[in-house]
Amino acid sequence: MSVDVSSRRRKAAGQGKAAHVFLLPWLLGLVFITALPLVASLYLSFTNYNLMSEPMFIGWDNFIRMVGDPRFMSAVAVTLRYVLISVPLQLAFALLLAVILDRGLRGLSFYRGAFYLPSLLGASVAVAIVWKEVFGHDGFVNQLLGLFGVEAVSWLQDPSRALSTLIVLNVWTFGSPMIIFLAGLRQVPEELYEAAKVDGAGQVRRFWNITLPMITPIVFFNLVLQTIGSFQSFTQAHVISGGSGGPLDSTLFYTLYLYQQGFVGYKMGYASALAWVLLIFIGIVTAIHFLLAKYWVFYGDEN
Amino acid sequence: MRKHDSLRAGRRPGVRVGSIVKHVLLAGFLLLMLYPLIWMVVSSFKPGDTVLTDTSLIPSQVTFENYTSGWNALNEPFTLFFFNSLVVSIGSIVGNLVSCTLAAFALARLNFRGKRLYFAITLVSVMLPLHVLVVPQYIFFSSLGMVNTFFPLLLPKFLATDAFFVFLMVQFIRTIPRELDQAAWIDGAGPFRTFWSIILPLMTPALVTTTIFTFIWTWNDFFVPLIYLTSPKVYTLPVALSTLVDSETLDGIGTLFAMSVLSLVPVVLFFAFAQKHLVRGIATTGLK
Amino acid sequence: MNIDRRTFLAVSGLAGLGLGLAACGVKQPSSGGSNDVSLRYGWWGNTIRQRTYETAFETFTTDHPHVTVQPEFAEYAAFQERMTTQIAGRTAPDLFWIASAQVLSYYKAGIYHDDLDKIETLDLSNFTPEQLESFKIDGKLNTVPLAVTAPVVRFNETFLDEAGATLPDEASTGWSWDGLAEFLIDYTKDAPEGRVGIAHNAQQDLTFESWLRQHGQQLWNEEGTVGFDADGLGGWLEWWEKLRKAGATLSLSEQEGPGMDWALAGDKTLMTFGNANHIADHAKMFPDYTFQLRGMPVLPDAAAGYTFGFMNRLTIYSGIDPDLLADAGRFLSFNLNHEAMLTPTLSLGAPVSGKQLEAAFDVASADEQKMLRIVQHNNAQESKPRYEAPAGTGTWRDIMTRTIEEIVLGGMGVKEASQKMIEGIQDEIAQVS
Known about the structure:
The complex is a heterotrimer of chains A (303), B (288) and C (433). Chain B is mainly α and 288 residues long. In chain B, 70% of the residues lie in helices and 0% in strands. Chain C folds into two domains: 182 residues, Periplasmic binding protein-like II (D-Maltodextrin-Binding Protein, domain 2), CATH 3.40.190; 197 residues, Periplasmic binding protein-like II (D-Maltodextrin-Binding Protein, domain 2). Classes of the chains: A mainly alpha (303), B mainly alpha (288), C alpha/beta (433). At the A-C interface, helix 1 and helix 14 of A face helix 3, helix 4, helix 16 and helix 17 of C.
């Protein structure tokens, strides 16, 4: 479609104004709800702030302290491990189930709802107690292992295993990315599949050559947001470890450490510094995601 | 080869066995997945003090006492908390649908200076942990005298601060071919008409997804309602539920399970209802 | 730019509706006459406690109809989280309970109403002058205790009878730390499968404090730093290690962590250390057993004045509207002196004033009376002063939990772990000063 230069410029100028009307609520939100607190927290990261008196400026001290803080290092290690293992695992499950459920399966609605149920519970207060029962000393998992003659194992109190229970919990709640994958699969035009069937392509080939490329924007979305979300994972570790990040800091997620410093230790300045380090790190990871996206994400709106 | 034949020919014994196997495997996996939930539901019918000590799936005693004692637990009937949660959730859905679609359309379709920057800032706002933003936000809202109301919970939704949905919608819009927009533009439609008549209808899966997730996340949101809502009369469900169990005595777990089961019911129903609307690609009809 | 007017209005209408919904939930109390007053009261616990308190408050509002008490109640951890933001935003309730780890931090932040004794409507006559002195922080009466509790040994009498055993006589030297350890190890040897002498409870802070005080040390000192050294702490941890290695304690896995889960430990242990006020709730979880309370084991040459009481304090917010002060004083008085408050207070501990303590026996359950007797006994002893946790020590219990994990799960030596814990706490204190 060719449009002449001047009308394109007119269009761009008109679109600029329109864009700002569309974006007005978002801009207001950005300034008052997001940006101001963002800037405030940046300032706080250079201060000593115990929430009760005025913040005291201390320069780079918080960041210097981070470098020598062994618990900070633990938190980083734990969080990295968690993200690197649970995100791909969870997304793989989500995609697998979505693909299976997307083919006119009888009882599709039922299965879709049923597989989503764990995600509903996953963020609730009751989940910790339930999970403790599942992985507890006399819990479901140990009983199951007992059926196979394997001796009961300490899951939640063993520093080398406690994190795995949280990884399993994250994978267990694959419902959200699964729903998004399902929505994305729905948007793949039927004609493409039919054309391929006529050409004799089998199920797997159709998946690789049609489905996967067409849903790459959705895969990308899920990948980026699940990664960001996992870096910020808090509730589950907090509730299941009783707020301690134990045993021996093996479930000390980064945001849990941040929370301990800010809300329990009343060191909001240090907590803010931790938050900004996390933000920068996530930013870098996300930027890498976006850079690499060029090589594998296919958008329908590109000419 | 046989697989292709059976696909083209349709029903054949091979297919039926295959589909039975599939169902069995799926059902088995489902049972495994749902065990914790099943356990919770079953436990809610066990007498309160045996909930943790009796780990079997078949209760030795069945009782409704957890439900009856939990209903009036906080000196208010639990319907009050349901209502509060409903107000917050539905309000959030409306807010997100209105503000995020507008913002996403602008970011995905309109060309203007600073587009990339705005998009980047949106993403950045997702990356900062909640606990650090909460204190400045709280100070902001409390200085406006909005504590103990739903305002701090709902206002951000109307200002598209849920960048997750903005990004989701941007990604969905980008799968819609630009030819449709340009066809509309040729016909003389401005940005708003394009948005309203062309893009919005094609975004139904994204809208449904947004609705579902907003509902579920706000329904389960604990920390933000906790700090803004101080009077139990305006508590939402998660805050009310948290008071059922005292971390010291661990008393009341049966009640917690019972009321948690009850508070899951609306979400499950909502989801069951809403997911039917994740309909097959309307995008295809647009190409004709 | 063509925006269809109708659709734009429709969209704005929706947005307006939403914001209208937002205004819902504004439950400001309706003040009828100009005399009507509303007091915000913040406290924590579980639903049972909430109900007993609110029932008691009705007595107050019947006597003072112009006052409405607005409850701001939440579970303990949730309450602290909310309190944190409320302090930052200067929106704390008019009266509120104080978490023990924050008593001095809050004082430093200036959120207590100093000179509660100057409030005319607050009746403090039930307290002795010595008691009032002991409440003071920095010479000012700015908090008052609602209840007092003490560390106790809680043992399962049913199990004891089953084994045909008796505890060493309390008055004898057999009721010492070493004596108790021997007893527990012996008991476990002959106990039925799965049952041990004691839950692993090294992080029971009040018991730990008792140990320290008996050894001539303290938890916190007057200067606002750690009041114990590596020997004091190390001795305590060693005592536990001896028991654990002899198999007399539950494994951390069996009790789900150093912070013992009573639901799991209750029917596997003969005894546990705990707070005196927990017996009522904990005993209910195992109705088939009878539990009894005892005071701490006593070191043969225990330092004088080692007994102590742990106070649950509450205060009036320094930022309270001055017009509310008189009624806040009345309400505080009610909390401390009125007989309707006896039942709610018992969930926290024993009333502090002698008169209330006596009266409490009439309304207390059998288990609660056991608690009252222990507190009465403690009250009769001479006690050295006790200092609250200094600012910055909010996480000290977590540090202790980690220390225990490092010893039990990580194999660290007791001496090294003790040193590390003390340094950790001192670091925390240093960071806020």
